[in-house]
Amino acid sequence: MTDTAVLDAQSVTVRYPGTPPVVAVDQVSLRVAPGETVALVGESGSGKSSFARAVVGIEKTAGGTVLFQGEPVAPLGLRRRARELTRIQMVFQDPSTSLNPRRRVGDQIADGIATARARGAAGSSVEEWLERVGLPAAVATRFPHQFSGGQKQRLAIARALAARPSLLVADEPISALDASTQTSVAALMRDLVAEAGAGMLFISHDLAVVRRIADRTHVMFGGRVLESGPTSDLWAQPRHPYTRALLSAIPEPDGEGRIPAAPSVADRAVWAEVPSVLN
What parts of the sequence cross the membrane (predicted)? Predict the structure, then answer.
């Protein structure tokens, strides 16, 4: 791993108001190096999305530090984000949060291209990005409501990648896609960011996809990372009982599949007390 990571998050904590306050993310640390895909996996409610929103500045942190290429990530406010921080792009689980329903999709992808050009990146075209995500160039004149959920997600991915990010944060980016294209689109995202020397934080509950694209994996449960390490090592020799439970519950004999249903209360209590295993 290089000394200067594109993302260096240390002891990040996120709390939500309540009595007592809800700790959604509890001192989570991870790094993403240039050219690397790092996965964050866990069941719904484990804190994955809260962490993703914190590292891009959408969610306010209650503690810890977030550095992008060695510089602090400022929380998003009313002012336009600094040009250098446009090198951080995020793909949300729901593409409706990033596509403007009143604008043609080609114009929105063109915005990403313009963002990249403003930083001196090489030129590209709307048609090129549409084709890369498996959509015909002719759809550029359509509006978001004319697409299916899976097609909208492809458009959101094209728009984010067109900005030529140094860091792509992808929060469940393929859950809206049909099973036959999930892996191929995830692999495309990995390949494009790697070609650019960028890094990707890929958040998912789909272990099959993570196994194929991630260099390192962090397993999250109850707001904490319980185990982390090279993806191949986690598959071959999981050390935390929660990770072992996830893998043993997958029906496929080669260990492929999705994270199973939520565990029992008794299991949760045991796993929460076992020290984390971090590499």
Answer: none
Calpha distance 167→36 (Å, rounded): 10
Instruction: Mention every residue, 6+ apart, whose C-beta is less than 8 A from residue 10.
Output: 29, 64, 65, 66, 67
**Residues 28-75 pLDDT 10s:** 999 999 999 999 998 888 999 999 999 999 999 999 999 999 999 988
Architecture in CATH for domain 7-278:
3-Layer(aba) Sandwich (3.40)
- Tell me the two tokens of residue 167: 């860091």
In angstroms, the CA 23 to CA 47 distance is 9
Longest CA–CA span in the chain (Å) reads 55
Identify the helix (H) or strand (E) that includes residue 25: strand 22-32
102 Cα distance to chain centroid: 26
Query: What token pair was written down for 25?
Result: 């993310």
Q: Which tens digits make up the pLDDT trace of 201-248?
A: 999 888 778 988 999 999 999 999 999 999 999 988 998 888 888 777
Task: Name the residue with tokens 């001196």.
Answer: 120
